């Protein structure tokens, strides 16, 4: 009797493990619409990406450079456009620490909602530097994909970031190619 009970418990445990693993596979984040674009550093690069996505998709992509957690309701793909602009931070009335806290809260919400996260850097060398790299390091562990302009990655920073975080990296030649890559992902 004890032996049958042990086998039954073992069988039930294996069945439960199998069923729960199917649940994890089914809930894996996949890139799809709706897409939401926000800044990660308050440069204007998020607006540029939004305009290109609107044009290529033939629809309006939601964008808010100061997005909050509530803005992510129903979002399947979150594109964070990295590039710290001190002028942009000043215009927004926030400092870098507040911006990093906002970004972290968005990333946690995206993770909770199983949203697909894309780190985008299309600002070239002008949007690189210690602060921008610090923000990219915050986003990368949550990212499913990194899309970066070739001129932004001359030092292979994003290659290393992708490798460290086991994230797919796509290096593109132009900003428009970044939008095309995102459109191709969600198809």
Task: Describe what is shown at a glance.
By secondary structure, the protein is α/β, with parallel strands linked by helices.
Any overview of this molecule?
By secondary structure, this protein is of the alpha/beta class. The protein folds into 2 domains: 1-28; 31-186, 3-Layer(aba) Sandwich (UDP-N-acetylmuramoyl-L-alanine:D-glutamate ligase), CATH 3.40.1190.20. The protein is 50% helix and 16% strand. It contains 7 helices and 6 strands; from the N terminus they run αβαββααβαβαβα. The chain has helices at residues 2-26, 45-57, 86-92, 96-112, 130-139, 157-165, 175-186, and strands at residues 35-40, 62-63, 77-82, 116-121, 145-149, 168-172. A 6-stranded parallel sheet has the order 2-1-3-4-5-6, with helices on both faces. Strand 5 (145-149), helix 6 (157-165) and strand 6 form a beta-alpha-beta unit. Helix 2 packs across helix 7 and helix 4 packs parallel to helix 5 (130-139). Residues 5-27 have low confidence and may be disordered.
Key structural traits:
187 residues; alpha/beta; UDP-N-acetylmuramoyl-L-alanine:D-glutamate ligase; 2 domains; six-stranded parallel beta sheet; 7 helices; globular
* Name of the CATH first level of the largest domain: Alpha Beta
Helix content: 40-55%
> Between the first and last Cα atoms, what is the distance in angstroms?
55 Å
Number of domains: 2
Which parts are unreliable, with pLDDT below 50 for 5 consecutive residues or more?
A: 5-27
User: How much strand?
Assistant: 15-25%
**CATH fold call of the largest domain:** UDP-N-acetylmuramoyl-L-alanine:D-glutamate ligase
**Corresponding CATH superfamily of the largest domain:** Ribokinase
Mean pLDDT across the residues is 88
| Major beta sheet, strand line-up | 2-1-3-4-5-6
| Number of DSSP strand runs | 6
CATH architecture designation of the largest domain: 3-Layer(aba) Sandwich
Principal-axes shape call: globular
């Amino acid at each position: 009797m004890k032996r049958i009970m042990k086998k039954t418990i073992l069988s039930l445990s294996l069945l439960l493990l199998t069923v729960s693993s199917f649940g994890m596979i089914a809930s894996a984040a996949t890139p799809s619409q709706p897409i939401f674009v926000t800044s990660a550093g308050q440069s204007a690069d998020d607006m540029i990406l939004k305009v290109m996505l609107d044009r290529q998709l033939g629809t309006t992509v939601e964008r808010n450079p100061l997005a909050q957690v509530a803005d992510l309701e129903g979002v399947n793909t979150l594109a964070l456009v990295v590039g710290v602009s001190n002028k942009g931070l000043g215009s927004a009335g926030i400092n870098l620490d507040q911006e990093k806290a906002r970004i972290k809260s968005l990333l946690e919400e995206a993770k909770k909602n199983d949203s697909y996260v894309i780190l985008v850097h299309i600002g070239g060398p002008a949007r690189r530097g210690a602060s921008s790299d610090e923000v990219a390091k915050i986003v990368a562990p949550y990212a499913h994909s990194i899309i970066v302009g070739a001129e932004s990655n001359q030092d292979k920073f994003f290659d290393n970031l992708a490798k460290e975080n086991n994230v797919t990296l796509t290096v593109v030649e132009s900003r428009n190619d970044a939008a095309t890559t995102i459109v191709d992902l969600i198809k």
